[in-house]
UniProtKB/TrEMBL annotation:
The keyword Acetylation does not apply. It holds the Pfam family CRS1_YhbY. This is Ribosome assembly RNA-binding protein YhbY. It comes from Virgibacillus kekensis. The lineage of its organism: Bacteria, Bacillati, Bacillota, Bacilli, Bacillales. Residues 1-96 form the CRM domain. Keywords: RNA-binding.
Amino acid sequence: MLTGKQKRYLRSEAHHLKPIFQVGKTGVNENMIEQINEALEKRELIKVSILQNCLEDKNTVAEQLSNGTGAEIVQIIGNNIVLYKESEENKHIQLP
């Protein structure tokens, strides 16, 4: 689990990131979870955008992504979800 201080740090790091995945009306599927997992391994911190045609609630989508990838939900802001997962091989974010 992330502490409040760590979440604040990650939020500031994620501020300038652009969403690299979009969840649409099909919702979250296995393929998407796999791709997000690979992206998390490379980057550790990513933003996922929820499109307006998505039928599920953003909190539900965030939970599904978090459970599927084992990542922490750093923040849900507007229609963006910020996810963090410590990388096995490409560790470049030093948490406070």
